[in-house]
């Protein structure tokens, strides 16, 4: 049985990682675009 | 109780706005396409950012955004955590993508691998498996699109279905894989932003402590980390996911399209970034019991919670999020399946001497035809049709080992591969009807592994990688 803290950590972590995913993709998109490496 | 329901004019406006955006982007991205390779494989030069986003967006389907909350609602923590293990398929495909790019530098489809490595019989059997799966997926996405538009906006199912299929067909025809990959990037960012916004607002309005105490009181099994039904489902789901990714031309065409050195990193990172998506989506479902929401259809629990928390804006967010998830998978499937039909059936079986211009034309007709066939099949809204995708779990899982061994083991035998796929599919389907859907992929995979390894040990081949280059 998961406890309230475990549930909260899982919830916050999933949202934080989705947020990091946005940053990661946008960062690499800009990097590739500036380096002429998108396509 | 508020429902996630938009008024008709807002729904129409959103549908029209996104249709124009995707079609315009498709045209813009595909305007420089000159050769067959530009259209089918984006010039084989896709970079890391677009590569990662397209792999991720394609794997985030309507299933991820609607079914993850449904699974969380029915199977609890393990339902959504188990669903997130669907990322194992992407992670494991990373080394395969690297190897595929090395051993088949000029190939176009996954069919090329089977034809060259295992010969015509296994190739044709693989094409049947792959087309059954692709059509099942296409129909389930088309139906999901029509149902979603109707349930969120009140726009009739037939119109929603027609618009979603129509715009995906239009922009895929206009820009080929470049349009698919370019729009995928935007769709991935939209999906992630939507999830973070919805999740953060839900967190603010319904804290985890409230969810925990409500669930502990009303449905404690959802908090159980060893929920047996969820664990059985989990194992089968992982194998189904691996089979889907390993065999489908949707993923092989990306392995061919990514620039040299990009494939491994792009698939690996897309797998990592995908892990939190079903969990973030799944947590929305836990808000329903905490808020005392009645859930008539578990697959609509996500939109229902969004409507409860945010009213009309919640419905807008869910609409945009699921619409993006649907389009990003539909366009990929249309492009990759048309490549398979044109290269492996039209050129491989009907017109072996077809010129590149002829192939490009055939690609356009095939995308339109696939869209039309999917539309026709989806139109009567027979829910059992979506079950085709579930049947195909056994079929695709039976291809896992013939593919892996064919790539990495020179002794893997062509007859063994053929009988492994056939035997695994038949026994996996038998298990589906006899024991239940949650066993079919496991049985298909185990039977297929046993056959291909036994036959290959008894009658080993000595295959040289150089022969694989057409």
Characterization of this structure:
The complex is a heterodimer of chains A (39) and B (470). Chain A is mainly α. Chain A has one helix spanning 4-34. The longest helix of chain A has 31 residues, at 4-34. Chain A is rod-shaped. The mean pLDDT of chain A is 93. By secondary structure, chain B is an all-alpha fold. Chain B is built from 21 helices and no strands. In chain B, helix 8 (120-153) crosses helix 17 and helix 19 (400-408) runs antiparallel to helix 20 (414-434). Chain B is globular, with a radius of gyration of 22 Å. The mean pLDDT of chain B is 89.
In whole angstroms, the N-to-C terminal distance of chain B is: 62 Å
How many angstroms separate the termini of chain A?
48 Å
Q: What's the helical proportion of residues of chain B?
A: over 70%
User: Structural class of the secondary elements of chain B?
Assistant: mainly alpha
Q: Pairing-aware structural class of the strands and helices of chain A?
A: mainly alpha
Specify the number of helices of chain A. Answer: 1
What layout of secondary structure does this protein have?
The complex is a heterodimer of chains A (39) and B (470).
Chain A: H1 4-34
Chain B: H1 8-30, H2 36-41, H3 48-59, H4 62-75, H5 77-84, H6 87-103, H7 110-118, H8 120-153, H9 157-205, H10 208-218, H11 228-247, H12 249-257, H13 263-274, H14 276-291, H15 301-310, H16 312-350, H17 356-378, H18 387-397, H19 400-408, H20 414-434, H21 437-458
Helix pairs in contact in B: 1-9, 3-9, 3-13, 3-16, 4-5, 4-14, 4-16, 5-11, 5-14, 6-11, 6-12, 6-13, 7-8, 8-9, 8-16, 8-17, 8-18, 8-20, 9-14, 9-16, 9-17, 10-14, 11-18, 11-21, 12-16, 14-15, 15-16, 16-17, 18-20, 18-21, 19-20, 20-21
């Amino acid at each position: 049985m998961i406890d309230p803290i475990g549930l909260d950590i899982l919830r916050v972590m999933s949202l934080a990682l989705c947020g990091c995913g946005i940053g990661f993709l946008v960062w690499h998109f800009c990097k590739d675009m500036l380096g002429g490496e998108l396509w | 109780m508020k429902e996630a329901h938009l008024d008709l004019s807002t729904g129409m406006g959103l549908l029209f706005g996104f249709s124009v955006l995707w079609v315009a982007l498709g045209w813009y991205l595909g305007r420089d396409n000159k050769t067959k390779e530009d259209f089918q494989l984006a010039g084989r030069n896709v970079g890391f950012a677009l590569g990662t986003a397209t792999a991720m967006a394609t794997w985030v389907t309507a299933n991820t955004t609607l079914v993850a909350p449904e699974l969380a609602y029915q199977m609890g923590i393990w339902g959504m955590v188990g669903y997130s293990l669907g990322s194992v398929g992407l992670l494991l495909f990373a080394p395969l993508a690297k190897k595929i790019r090395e051993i088949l530098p000029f190939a176009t489809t996954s069919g090329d691998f089977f034809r060259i490595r295992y010969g015509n019989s296994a190739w044709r059997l693989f094409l049947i498996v792959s087309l059954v799966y692709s059509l099942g997926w296409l129909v389930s996405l088309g139906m999901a699109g029509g149902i979603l538009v109707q349930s969120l906006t009140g726009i009739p199912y037939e119109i929603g279905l027609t618009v979603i299929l129509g715009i995906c067909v239009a922009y895929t025809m206009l820009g080929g894989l470049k349009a698919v990959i370019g729009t995928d990037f935007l769709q991935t960012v939209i999906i992630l932003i939507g999830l973070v916004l919805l999740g953060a607002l839900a967190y603010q309005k319904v804290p985890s402590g409230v969810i925990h105490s409500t669930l502990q009181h009303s449905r404690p099994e959802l908090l159980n980390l060893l929920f047996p039904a969820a664990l059985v489902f989990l194992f089968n789901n992982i194998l189904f996911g691996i089979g889907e990714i390993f065999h489908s031309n949707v993923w092989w065409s990306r392995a061919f399209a990514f620039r040299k050195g990009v494939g491994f990193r792009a698939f690996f990172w897309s797998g990592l970034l995908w892990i939190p998506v079903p969990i973030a989506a799944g947590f929305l479902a836990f808000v329903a019991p905490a808020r005392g929401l009645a859930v008539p259809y578990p697959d609509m629990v996500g939109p229902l919670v969004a409507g409860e928390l945010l009213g009309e804006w919640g419905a807008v967010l869910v609409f945009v999020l699921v619409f993006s998830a649907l389009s990003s998978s539909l366009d990929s499937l249309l492009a990759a399946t048309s490549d398979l039909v044109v290269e492996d059936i039209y050129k491989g079986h009907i017109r072996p001497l077809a010129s590149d211009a002829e192939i490009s034309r055939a690609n356009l007709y095939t995308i339109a035809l696939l869209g039309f066939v999917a539309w026709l099949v989806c139109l009567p809204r027979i829910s059992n049709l979506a079950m085709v995708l579930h049947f195909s779990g056994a079929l695709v899982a039976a291809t896992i080992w013939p593919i892996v061994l064919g790539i990495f083991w020179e002794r893997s035998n062509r007859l063994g591969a053929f009988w492994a796929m056939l035997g695994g599919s038949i026994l996996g389907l038998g298990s589906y009807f006899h024991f239940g859907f949650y066993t079919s992929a496991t049985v298909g995979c185990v039977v297929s592994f046993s056959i291909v390894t036994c036959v290959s040990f008894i009658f080993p081949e000595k295959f040289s990688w150089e022969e694989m280059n057409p």
